[in-house]
Amino acid sequence: MDKYNNKFISPQGDLEMKKHLNIDNIRIQKMLDIKLKVFNKEITTADARRLVNETFDRVSAEEFVYGEQHLFNAGITDEIMAEGMDDILDVFKDVLVVDSLNLPKGHPIQTYADEAVALELLLLKMEQKLNGKFIKNQWLELYSQLSEINIHFSRKQHQLFSALERKGFDRPSRIMWTFDDKVRDAIKDAYLLLQTDKDDAFIAAQPHVIHLVRDILGKERDVLYPTSLKLLSDEEFAEMRKGDDEIGYCLIDNPPAYYASSKDFASNPEMDNKNNLLTDLKDVLAKHGLTTSSSKDEVLSVSNGKLTLEQINLIYKHMQIDLSYVDENDIVKFYTDSTHRVFPRSPGVIGREVQNCHPRNSLSTVNAIIDAFRKGEQDEAEFWIDKGDKFIYIIFNAVRDDEGNFRGVLEMMQDVTHIRSLKGSRRLLSWENSKPYNENEIKPNNKNMNSEKTTYTTKDVQIDIEPKTVIGEVIGQYPFIKDFLVSLSPDYNRLTNPVLFKTMKNIATLDMISKVGGFKVDHLIKLIKQEIEDKQ
C-alpha cells in the first residue's frame, strides 16, 4: 500500500480539506518525510533546507499546511509541532511562495493585512524609542496601541479559524493559536514591568516582544492568508465580514462592507440581517418540525407560555446576562446577541467545536467540565473573575432532557460589579437619571448615561466627554475627577504627580487613560459622568 495512504492520512481527516485543494500526494509525501526528519532530530535544519531546495522549485502555502494537518498521525503532537514550527518554516523558506493579495478593501483577509501594516509601523516606532531617552508616558501610549493586537487575534480565532475548521483545516489553526498566546503573554508581561516602574527589565524585554509580533504577522502572511483564500469562497468571506464588526479592529478604522461577486450574494444591505438570531431560531425550529410558516408572528407553544419568534428574539437581545449553549456533541449552537455582552462573540462560533473556541491553556478545564457533566458526576461549575473594574460571574450547567440524558452545556455569564456594590434595600421606585437640575447646574444634553458621549454645559463652559477627550480638559473643568480616578485604581496615582500630570494632561486621552487603569473606555466614561452628576 502507498506509504502516504497507510502512514499519515486517516480515513476521515483527509476528506474535507482535500475537496477544496488541488493536492499532489507524492509531493506531500516528500514534504512530510523531510518534516518528520526535522521533528525527530534525524537531520539538521541546514541539511533539510538543502534537501528541500534540491527537491522542490516552489511550495504553495496550501501544500505546506496540508501536510501539517496530518503529522499527528505520525506521532507529532501539537506541542511538538508548536515547538518545532520555526525550524520547519526556516527549512522551507527558500521555496515557500507567497503571492500578493490584490484584494479589495473590506475583504476580511485584506483587513488582516492592513492591520499587520499598522502593527509593523508601531513596531518601528518602538524600535526608534529604544534608541532614545526612556520616557514612560510615551511607552504607555505605545503599549496602549500594541494591546489592540488582541482584537486582531480575537477576530482571527473566532471568525477566520472557525470558517477554516469547517473545511477540515483545524490543526494548523490550533498551532497558530498557541503562537498568538505567546505574543499576548509577552506583551502582558512587558506591560506589567512598565506599570511597576521596572524600567531596565522593560527595555530589555522589548526585542523579544517585537520579534514575536513580527514572527506571528509573518506566519499569517506566508501561511494563513494564502491558505484561507484557497479554502474559502467569496461568499464565505462576505458572511465573515458581517461578523467582524462584532469584535472590532486593530489600529485601523472600520473597513467598508464586503459583498461577494455572485448574483446570489449581490451588494444588498438587507443581506446583513441574514444571520440574525430570529433567522437562526426559525431554521432550528423548522428542522424539528415545530413550524412550517415563515411568519415572525407565528405563535409557538413554549414550556410555559406562547411566544412568537420575534418575541423570543427580543427577550434574548434584552437579557442582561450572556447565554451560550453547546450541544451533546460539543458543538456551539447558540449565544445571546445582546448589548450587555461581557466578551465579544461573533456568528463564526456557531457550528464550531467548543474546544476550538478556547486557548490551549484552558482546554483541560473545558474538557473536564464537559466530561463530568456527560458522565453525570456533576451538574454545575462556577467561576468568578476580578478583572480590573469588573467582577465577572460565570456558571456552567449540564443540560439534561426529561429522561436525564446529557444534552449539552449552558454557560451563563454576567458582569455583577454593580450588584456586588449594592447595600441596604431599595423599596421605592428610583430612576437613575431623575435628578432635577436648575439653570445654573451642569446639564447633560443627552440623558442616556450608557451612551459613549455626553456633552455637559454651563453658562460659560462646554466640554465633550468622549474617548478622544484629553484628561487635562476633564480635570481642568472638574478638579474632583483626579481624586475620583485615584480612588478607582492605584494606577492613577501618577495623576497626583505635578510634573508627570503636566506632561500628560494634554496628550493622554480618556481612551488611553482607560487602558492604563484596566477599564473599558465606555465604562470609565460612564463612571466619570456619574461622578460629575453626583457632585453637582
Summarize the structure.
This protein has 21 helices and twelve strands. With 536 residues, the protein is an alpha+beta fold.
Q: How would you state the average pLDDT, rounded?
A: 79
Please state the CA-atom Rg, rounded to the nearest Å.
27 Å
Kindly, what is the distance between the CA atoms of the first and last residues, rounded to a whole number of angstroms? Answer: 84 Å
β-sheet strand percentage? 5-15%
**Poorly predicted sequence stretches spanning 5 or more consecutive residues:** 1-15, 263-275, 433-461
Number of helical elements: 21
Q: Structural class per helix/strand content?
A: alpha+beta
| Count of beta strands | 12
Biggest β-sheet, characterized?
5 strands, antiparallel
Strand order of the largest sheet: 6-5-9-8-7
Percent helix range: 40-55%
The shape, in one word, is globular
